[in-house]
Design brief:
The chain is of the alpha/beta class. Helix content is about 35%, strand content about 15%. It contains nine helices and ten strands. The strands form three sheets. The chain has a six-stranded parallel sheet, with helices on both faces. A two-stranded parallel ribbon has the order 7-9. A two-stranded antiparallel sheet has the order 8-10. Strand 1, helix 1 (about 20-35) and strand 2 (about 35-40) form a beta-alpha-beta unit.
């Protein structure tokens, strides 16, 4: 992994890959609230879901794993927010990730969303109920050919190996509701601060957008949880009051307190 030594690129134009979904629409609004120019990518049959933003964003219809669609959408973009959806059994997530990696501007910030089941270093600790749920869901998904979880693993593996200015944000279970503020995060699932396993979807989107301007999150794979959840309140009073750049520095300071010899 390379060090976080890049100069921060000003964010003016952002592509959102998967803009028509619930998470995508929240990201669109957060970006517009910050004055960013937004280009949204979604399947042609889902364009109507973006009607609330008509005239305020550019929409590129097409499959998100189509390299030509992505090439058009990310041209000139300072940041790319990508929802890695493992639909079907046609390498949808890995195809989407690869298209973004291939065609995004060389120094663009690339933020990807996925679930807690993704592990960058193998140090995550999953509960027995979580592992059982994942096994059952994965079996049914393969049986009925509607989701391919292994392809999301492949997608993030490609991101981790890319050397680009990426962040992979791992979301907990999600719920709807008004924003509670920026989620807190930890490097590994199983850490006490994440025990509540719940984040407002609007705040997941907020973390994605905030990561665009946080060089401290480059080449990090944060697992997030809502800042008002019991585990965050109990274990994360320091993190809750710091912006994400400070969060990254605080995490590194804590790591430096330990001897790894």
């Amino acid at each position: 992994m390379t060090s976080n030594t890049h100069d921060t690129r000003p964010i003016r134009r952002v592509a959102i890959i998967g803009a028509s979904g619930k998470l995508g629409r929240y990201m669109v609004q957060h970006c517009l609230d910050r004055g960013y120019e937004v280009v949204g990518v979604c399947r042609a049959e889902s364009v109507h879901k973006l009607e609330d933003f008509a005239g305020g964003i550019t929409v590129v219809p097409g499959k998100t794993n189509d390299p030509e669609v992505i090439r058009e959408a990310v041209q000139g973009c300072d940041g790319v927010l990508t929802v890695l959806v493992p639909w079907g059994v046609q390498q949808y997530a890995s195809g989407t990730a690869q298209a973004v990696l291939d065609h995004a501007e060389d120094d663009a910030r690339l933020i990807f969303s996925c679930g807690w089941h993704i592990s960058m270093d193998g140090q995550d600790r999953y509960s027995l109920p979580f592992r059982a749920m994942l096994a059952v869901f994965g079996f049914l998904a393969r049986l009925f050919r509607f989701v391919e979880l292994d392809d999301q693993v492949e997608a993030t593996d490609r991101v981790f190996a890319s050397g680009r200015r990426w962040t992979v944000v791992r979301g907990s279970s999600l719920e709807e509701g008004p924003s509670q503020g920026l989620p807190v995060w930890s490097e590994h699932v199983g850490d006490p601060i994440l025990a509540s396993d719940m984040t407002r979807r609007i705040d997941f989107a907020l973390f994605m957008v905030e990561a665009l301007t946080d060089p401290g999150l480059e080449q990090e794979c944060p697992a997030i949880v809502g800042c008002k959840t019991p585990s965050a309140i109990e274990h994360g009073s320091r993190e809750r009051v710091e912006p994400p750049g400070e969060l990254a520095r605080a995490h590194r300071e804590r790591l430096s307190d330990f001897s790894w010899a």
